[in-house]
Amino acid sequence: MNQLQYSLTPAGENALMLYFAQRIDPVISATVQHACALIRAELGESLVDLLPSYASVLIVFNPFKTDLNQVKIQLKQCLTQLSTQQQQTGKLVELPVYYSTESGPDLALIASSKNISIAEVIRRHQAISYRVYAIGFAPGFAYLGEVDPLLQMPRLATPRAKVPRGAVAIADRQTAIYPAASPGGWNLIGLCPTRMFNPDATPIMPVTVGDEVRFVAIDKSEFLRLGGEL
User: Is the pTM of this model over 0.85?
Assistant: First the structure.
């Protein structure tokens, strides 16, 4: 079993950052998920929160139950179980998308800049599964990667003042769904009726870090039937 390299850095009086290789990589992402499982089991009631990202984990502990040095010792102990051979433990989630120039105002821009048809943009976006690498920016905003190289687009030079809830978008190597109306500079290609964050639901988000997402095209009538809003 090949042990992976990592580093631990204090991030406050009751927090530590665990860093792995700083790159977007499904193997590193799987390692992050394995590390989270090990840390939860090791720290138990001393753990307040775990915040995983692409290649790091923020570990917040209860200073009334333990201290920084003790947590470091426990982490180094449990992380010896990490290896380069990680099992994919996330679930596969299918999310419906209404792709059109009505719901995706940047579809035509992407098609013309890549010299392909709008239909080809839609086909390529649906053709692969995307890993949930991180959740941030806003509750339920899942960073998904990586998009087909032909569909990679830079962020807009001037962000929109308001992007609608459910907007499916592309920026650089990633794609995402806006969980709520907000400003945004990603390229919009469709709308998803599924709520990405609902505090009244269980679970509150349909995806979590480590899951795989596939997009499935639906028409306008199905989008509206599923609760989508134009």
Answer: no
pLDDT along the chain (230 residues), means of 10: 75 91 80 86 92 88 93 90 65 96 97 97 97 88 94 95 97 96 97 95 91 96 95
Q: Which residue bears the tokens 């190289």?
A: 149
Choosing among 3.40.109.10, 2.40.100.10, 3.40.630.30, 2.60.40.10, the CATH entry for 92-225 is 2.40.100.10
Domain 7-81, architecture per CATH: 2-Layer Sandwich (3.30)
Strand 212-217 and strand 92-99: the pairing is parallel
| CA pair distance 148, 205, nearest whole angstrom | 25
Q: How far is the C-alpha of 133 from the C-alpha of 120, rounded, in Å?
A: 25
